[in-house]
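The protein record now logged underneath.
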Amino acid sequence: MSFAVWCLIVGLVLLAMALAGSVLKRLPLSASMLYLAAGFGLGPIGLGLLEADPFGQSRLFERLAEIAVLISLFVAGLKLSVPLRSARWFLPLRLAIVSMLLTIVLITAAGMWALGLPLGAAVLLGAILAPTDPVLASDVQLTNPADRDRLRFSLTGEAGLNDGVAFPFVMLGLGLLGLHELGAAGWKWLAIDVVWGIGAGLAAGGVLGFLTSRLVVYLRVRHREAVGLDEFLALGLIALSYGVALLMHTWGFLAVFAAGLAFRRVEAQPGDRTALHSALHDASIELGGKEIAANEAVATDPRHASSYMTQAVLGFNEQLERVGEVALVIILGAMLAYTPLPGTVLWFLPLLFLVIRPASVWAAVRGLPCSRLQLGMMSWFGIRGVGSIYYLMFAINHGLPRPLAEQLAAITLAVVATSIVVHGISVTPLMRYYEREERPRGGA
C-alpha cells in the first residue's frame, strides 16, 4: 500500500473518531471496536489495502506493540497516586500475581488436555493470554489520579503489573520448547528471569523515575530551568528506564511502570487539578492573558511545580496511548484474515472469559475488602489486548515452530478480537450501573 493511501486511511479514521468521540460515550460501543472493524475491512478479506501477515511481518508488529504497551504502562503508573504503603495495593497485587498465575496454570491445563499442545506451548499460551491489557482497558481504569475507586484502581494496577510479571512465564514456555536456556532444574530461569528480572526491573525504573522527577522540580523551582518540553521529558524517561532495564537484563515493562509510579510520587497532593487550574487562571490574569508566561510561572512555583509537571506528562502520554491503540487494533483487524478461526475457540473463549478469569479472580481476592458487585466486575473485565499481541509476536520471533505459531496465533488473535467486542459492548452499560450502585457508598 502506498504512503498516500496510508495517509488517506489514517486521516479518515482519526477524523471520524474525533467527531464521533462524544457519541461513543453514550452508546454500548468502544472506539476499539470501530478500529477493529476498520482493520478487517481494509485487510485482505475486505478492500485488500492493508497487509498484516503476523508471520511475515512479526518483527514490525512486535516493535509497534512494544511501544504501545510501554506508553500505556507509564500512563498507568502515573495514574496510581496512592502511596505504596496503602492497603489499597493488596487487591491489584493479588490480581497481578495470584490471579495471573492461576490463569496460566488453568490455560496450560486446557492447552495440554483439550488442545493437545505440548507442555511448553501450553505454558506459552497461558503466559500470552494471562495478562490483562493496559492499552484497551482505559474505560474501566482510573480516569484521573484523584480517583480512589477500588474497582478502577485494582484493574489499573493489575494491568500495569502483570504485563511485566508475565514475561518470565513466556520465557519458561520458550525454554520448555528448547528456545530459551532454563538451566539445570530451572535454576537459571528462577534466578535470572524471575528474581532478578522482576526485582531489578522494578528497582531500576523506580530509581530513575524518582531521580528524574526530583531533578526537574529542583531545576524549575530553584533555577527556573528545565521548563517546557514536557513531552520530551515523558518520552525520555520511558526510553531511559526501558533501555537501562534491558541492558541490566531485567524486564523493561516493569521498569517503565515503576518509573511512572515513582514519577508520580514527587507530587505533594496527587491529582489536585482544581488547585492547579486555579493557579494557572490567576497567573494568566496577573500576566495579562499571556498563556506561555502563566504556564512558566506556575511550572516554577514551589507550590505547584510538581503537580504541573505530572499533569502535563500524563496528558501528553494519554494522547500517545490513543494513537497506539488506533494503529495496533487496525492491524489486528487485518491480521484476522491470516489466521482462520479454529473450531476450538467455540469452547475455549467461554472457558477463558466465564470460568478461568472469574475463578482466578475469586481465589486471588478472597478475604480482601471487596463488594460482590466489584468482584463481579473484576471477574468480567479481564480485557485481553495489545500485551497479548506483543507476547505472541515475541514468541514467533524467538523461533517458535510454524505449526505451533499458527495454532497459538489463531487462538490469541481470536481471544483479543472477541475481548474487544464483548467487553466493548458491555463496558458502557456495566460501568454506568456500577457508578449508580457503588458511588453513593464511596466505591472505596
